[in-house]
Amino acid sequence: TQKIIIDTDPGQDDAVAILLALASPELEVLGITAVAGNVPLSLTALNARKILELAQRQDIPVHAGCAAPVDRDLVTAEHVHGKSGLDGIELPEPTMPLQEQHGVDFIIDTLRSQPAGAVTLVPIGPLTNIAAAFRQAPDIAARVKQIVLMGGAYFEVGNITPAAEFNIYVDPVAAKEVFGSGVPLVVLPLDATHEALTSADWVQDMRNMSNRCGPAVASWTDFFERYDKEKYGSKGAPLHDPCTIAWLLNPKLFSGRQINVEIETEGRFTTGMTVADWWGVSDRKANALFIRHVDRDGLFALLTDRISRLP
Ligand code: BDR
Ligand code: CA
């Protein structure tokens, strides 16, 4: 099994990613660190616990990390995810506690206590916590197996500004540090995740499942779909964040290139852009596997199989 830490700002698609990980025996979720993003930190830390309780996994610790980027105000996305961040279904108030330890310290301690090269980080929100951990404890970067993240866009350009994807835009300085960390990176940008669109049939299959998690996934994707329908005229909800977990489970579902990706932190119109050298026209060193396409049918078959195993 692969050991992972999920760093997240739930978010309906974050919730599906977490459920996919919990349902997969190939993965051991060591902990969940919450970060501010889609909604403020207090809500993402709350939502993470609601999701774990839905899946009856109160044994997994949830730690709250950073409440905002170091050098700028937090940008949130209630216009996409609703006021709670997890609109679509009312989940009960969680009874499991939030851990006292700060999320950044949890990341540092876990990487130091686990064997070097054993832990994969899966950031599916802004990169604030991960960058803070690397800044506070420079020794840990060499101990990370890889970082598999959702963020960025190149051919599909932006969803929060014309040039930038949300997770990178919220904290471009953190993203720049993570992309420059030397840790092997797998990047799931909008180019791939906008192909991961739910279909009406698939959502119906989720709704018909006899467990609790299937119908919850259906109500989340129903809610999430509204925004993309209005905005992009797309049919279905893009399951951005679950692509990271799916890549870990079956990388053959994805195709991409090992390329150089730099983060714009100062552009007048382009702050937060992932400048991806897809065509290899610069002499900058490759630092990321940048995913371009996903096998949509394969992805949704995997999701159906796994979500059906949950309570
Ligand atoms: C990313 O931003 C958030 O709104 C989603 O949860 C996803 O992580 C997509 O741009
Ligand atoms: Ca997210």
UniProtKB/TrEMBL annotation:
Single GO MF descriptor: hydrolase activity
Keywords carried by this UniProt record: Glycosidase, Hydrolase
Annotated Inosine/uridine-preferring nucleoside hydrolase domain residues: 4-300
InterPro entries: I/U_nuclsd_hydro_CS, Inosine/uridine_hydrolase_dom, IUNH, Ribo_hydro-like
Coiled-coil regions listed in the entry: none
PANTHER family associated with the record: INOSINE-URIDINE PREFERRING NUCLEOSIDE HYDROLASE, URIDINE NUCLEOSIDASE
Protein name: Nucleoside hydrolase
Native organism: Paracoccus onchidii
